[in-house]
Batch of 2 targets.
Target 1
Amino acid sequence: MVDLYRLFNPRGIAIVGASREPNKIGSVILRNLIEAGYEGKIYPINPNAQEIMGLKAYPSISAVEGTVDVAVISVPAPKVPDVIEDAGKAGVKFAVVIASGFKEVGNVALEEEVVKRAKKYGMRVVGPNVFGYVYTPSKINTTFGPNDIIPGNVAFISQSGALGVALMGTASVEGLGISAIISIGNKADLDDSDFIEYLGDDPNTNLILIYMEGISEGQRFMEVASKVSLKKPIIIIKSGRSEAGARAAASHTGSLAGNYSLYKSAFRQSGILLAETIEQAFDWAKALAWNPLPKGDNVVIITNGGGAGVQATDALADYGITLRRISDTLAANLKQILPPFASLGNPIDLTGLANAEWYYQSISLALDDPNVDSLVVIYCRTGMTDPKEIAGAIKDALKSSKNRKPITVAMIGGEAEYEAMRELTREHIPTYPTPERASASMGAIYRYYYAKKYVEERLKELDKKKLTALERIR
Ligand code: ACO
């Protein structure tokens, strides 16, 4: 494993190309790092400045007296090799090369030169062509993206820059807390596998979300991903599904997007969840990051709308989940609290008259029933109920039960339901605006549940036969 400890826990960070002009990329990075509250030493490097943002500026990294573990390099591409040389001499361990203008535009030799010089000093390179990285436990933000990041347990690795920066904002809106964001760009040296492997052991990360265009070392990637997916879910959005998309990826980061169906099969074997859209990836991430894993596959739907229940049932079926009848005990207990016209099948239809108390009681009973493994709870707007109260009932039922089970919620309707959805999201109860998304996200939990079992079995088998994962698929 590549030891990335000092990248994520550096004693000092140099921003090379920190500019006197506030809107240049180097300045935004410096400002983000200061504002993020990084507690190590920050060294702006600029031969033309004495001081930037109140910090003493240095003409080069070798002029710095303190320890610099990371150099974030934001000077034009042709200047990067010399900066790397200087950083190497100063004992820098990691260079994060922001500059574009390398392999992605045909400058392969320049990119190779950067890696060659770094290697000479045992320095590792992130990028080039990246927007920087974030690690919230160390209060680091060396990106030129936003700074309103919610700390949490999801690590996000992006091969795309602009999309990565934009998704930092999406994560905030979705209420998804972040442990790390890493822009890997052209991956001239450190790649997905290195970061996945390290984050697999990172106690601050419980899920890894990746936007990927292509991988070069497939064998190593599968080995690493298989091991890590036993510990935590890995969700990948793999672009270049179509031929045209693959061509676009090649001109974006110089990646070979490859054959999508090969990726699909390799991901399946490694326990990776392949998301087809960004929306799906974020939906799944919330469900997986905020829920425990189920103990079995008995999913129960509780709804106040028959049609929404049917939609949710269909969406679960798309993920291979068939609903079973609820137990006689649960049915008998529900009968005590619900009106005679409520339907006690699965979905449990509380009917349009359902109030907050019915939701509270039926969720509590389902959580306490040992036959129920997971819950999809659906609320459709009605004229008689306040979605805020329903959200409160869901929250209270989860809080007061001693049984933790996976749950996803749909709040369907208008602005008031969206507000209730946001309220539940703030409490880390994965909530969606449609029954299909709530069910699909529950489906993703089960996809991971089975993928983990599958990988466990496969690795055991491989171990027995003393075969590596690659030998097996060759
Ligand atoms: N060491 C330190 N500082 C230096 C050096 C040096 N050797 N040489 C020059 N500088 C200073 C400059 O004087 C300048 O400071 P000043 O403004 O106070 O004079 C500062 O460093 C920056 O240098 P510039 O030449 O002004 O470079 P600029 O900031 O315009 O651009 C950059 C550099 C951002 C790296 C640009 O070349 C580039 O590649 N931009 C694209 C970045 C990008 O998009 N990356 C991919 C991200 S992913 C995405 O898609 C979002």
Target 2
Amino acid sequence: MQFQYWNERIEKMPRAELEVLQLDRLRAEIGFALRTPFYRERLAAAGIAGPGDIHSLDDLRKIPFTGKSDLRQGFPYGFLSIPRHDVVRLHASSGTTGIPTTIYFSRDDIKNWTDNMARCIYGAGCTKDDVFQNMISYGLFTGGLGLHQGGEEIGMMVIPSGSGNTARQFKLMQDFGTTVVHATPSFLLHVETKMKEAGVARESLSLKKAFAGAEPYSEDTRRRIEGLLDIDVYNSYGLSEMNGPSVAFECQCKDGMHIWEDGYIAEIINPDTLEPAADGEVGELVLTILCREATPILRYRTRDLTGFYTEPCPCGRTHRRLRRIRGRSDDMLIINGVNVFPSQIEEVIMGMKEVGNNYLIVVEKDGAMDRLTVKTEIGEDIFMDDSRPLNALKERIMQTLQVSISIRPHVELHEGGALPVSEGKAIRVQDLRPKDI
Ligand code: AMP
Ligand code: ZN
């Protein structure tokens, strides 16, 4: 196989040299962190007064972990390390409402992110001859603009089609000869079904590749999409706290995602003991971003469960490969690519006085897409045989939830006492999607 590299020197840098670069960049990042109120306090408590207190990469372990709740507490500007007028953009985590986790970018931060993204896309074999249709949400979510910028950097023609509307997506693919797409894996499976329904012949499309990410999926799902659409599918991993996509991406070998270690320090920990996992073992990924001046985040607990490959990749890149994400070490659900915490749903429904005390969140597959149903019991003063107030209540729950979690759920109302009550810890979430990862 002929491999191509966006930045061969960095991508194939010997590990010893890479570690020297990481240490340098870690010190610089600590310099930025010390300008934020949050880290000034945190780092001082850990005995780190300046970058000079970091003597080796092992000293990273002196720094306490940062979690999502820290980012929320620091909202809006607690993690900003440069003057506000030097910020050129902000992004937020998908599905976040209430207090979002917001990330700020300087002009250089955007340049770095774009360059990393180009490295991923080029490494997957794309060139400026490709036509790239970005079928994912734009806006605060990083998946839209992230891949968009990277595609343009390479010189591909980018079609910012956004998510949904399959009929329009097919039309664009046919009119402009799209060769590469980016979408969630569930949407890609759905595209195939819709293609059949709409009578779109595979031969009328020029598709060759897809980037799939934003939610967990199995190797079987990858193969299924590849078979159905006759394309190569590359796994793309990222999270808004760490810029978004471009954290780790598969090369042409399609066997694990190279994490760009000149831009991140990656650790795998045991989520229970918080101690480092053994080489190659699966645990929680902890990331420190290295080249971001506006929002430094050190030792961020991603909650994503994965591990490193221990053997080198045939492509010759020295940056380690991450395994497919196995799941999460917290209760966050990813529904059609959107992050949802059960507590967000609880907050909405328990805040409505017409709603009774018991509820159940059910997530299942509806064809290729995920389907969220929220079942609630109704309060004592509403009667099941009076459909008008019931329908109004259902609609109101749906709408309020949609505002809060960015997804329109199905809502089922049940009589008081009708939903199952468990004897031990309440079971509020039933995730019935097949677990084949
Ligand atoms: P967001 O901050 O909205 O971009 O969401 C980031 C989260 O999406 C990650 O922490 C993962 O849980 C999930 N995610 C993103 N990409 C992938 C992927 N390729 N495989 C599995 N999960 C992913
Ligand atoms: Zn590789």
